Amino acid sequence: MKKANSIFLTVAAIITVQFYAGAAFGKVEPVVLRDGIDVYRLDRHLEILEDEKGEWTIDDVTSTSFADRFKLGEFNLCLSGSVFCFRFRVKSESSVILPLEICSDQFFLEQSKWKVLWSGIYFGIILGMVLYNLFLFNSLRDRCLLFYVLYVICIAIYFAGLNGFLAEYILPKLPELSSLLILSFLNFALFWVILFAKSFLGTKKHVLVTDKFLTVLMVCALALVIMTPFVGYRILIRSSFILAAVIPLELIIAGSTCLKLGYRPARFFLIAFATVIAGELIFNLTLRGMLQYNILTASRKMLM
């Protein structure tokens, strides 16, 4: 009982931090270039103009009159009193992470090597997990292992697409299809992880009401996959991310309930999904500017 209550309090604290964090980080200092510093991050030095009425077109935001709305001096590199103005266009139907920074050639090459190395280690570990659990499934014939393998494969393909590998190496000439496949594999991953949780926790036996709600979420994930070719991308991505936020919390609740009822294997399930919640927290705090954007904080969500 105490363990379940502590889990609920932890989840509530995480949600509170994510919603209310960031108010104390509003002050922005100028970017000053100095010898010996190879990189300067610009994320909090960018001014965002919101289209409150939803009337702007692509011609509006690329016009000279629109550029004049940005105050000169907001982005000052302090180079002999000179002010450099940069304007670029990013087109997307969903939110985009732009970790902008000024860096030297050497720093850029070193960072690129670390990113490639990290990706290789991550996907190598994923491959090892898949092969190991397939071996166990072949020996034990436990359906939980098969559901888990399918979940890991789908989430690995999702993150490969999210990091640009799908569009760059598999579908270089079909970026739109790549975006749709990313969402499809995300929803497939949600479908399989629910099926794994239902099977591992025995929710139909221990918590029938929660089991029915998990079934509804599973059907929603599958429905989003089927609707992918027919629904607008913006609606699809918002629905998918809402579902991706609800499902981990519901799985924590299901695991806590089963543990409270005396089902001891639920403790291992809760420990595993606590890392998922922690990854969500770190990733969201990074987006809000409370944590520095780097290869560790940006990739923490991949540890699912």
Judged by helices, strands and strand pairing, the structural class is mainly alpha
Strand content: under 5%
Shape: globular
Q: Can you tell me the residue ranges where pLDDT is under 50 for at least 5 consecutive residues?
A: 14-28, 44-48, 71-81
The helicity comes to 55-70%
Number of helices: 12
The radius of gyration over CA amounts to 23 Å
What characteristics describe this protein?
304 residues, 2 strands, 64% helix, two-stranded antiparallel ribbon, mainly alpha
Give an overview in words.
With 304 residues, the protein is mainly α. It has a domain at 2-14 and 113-302. It has 12 helices and 2 strands; from the N terminus they run αβααβααααααααα. Strands 1-2 form a two-stranded antiparallel sheet. α1 runs antiparallel to α10, α5 (143-162) packs antiparallel against α7 (175-201) and α7 (175-201) runs parallel beside α10 (233-260). The longest helix is centred in the middle third of the chain and has 36 residues, at 105-140. The protein starts with a helix and ends in a 5-residue tail after the last helix. The model is unreliable at 14-28, 44-48 and 71-81 (pLDDT under 50).
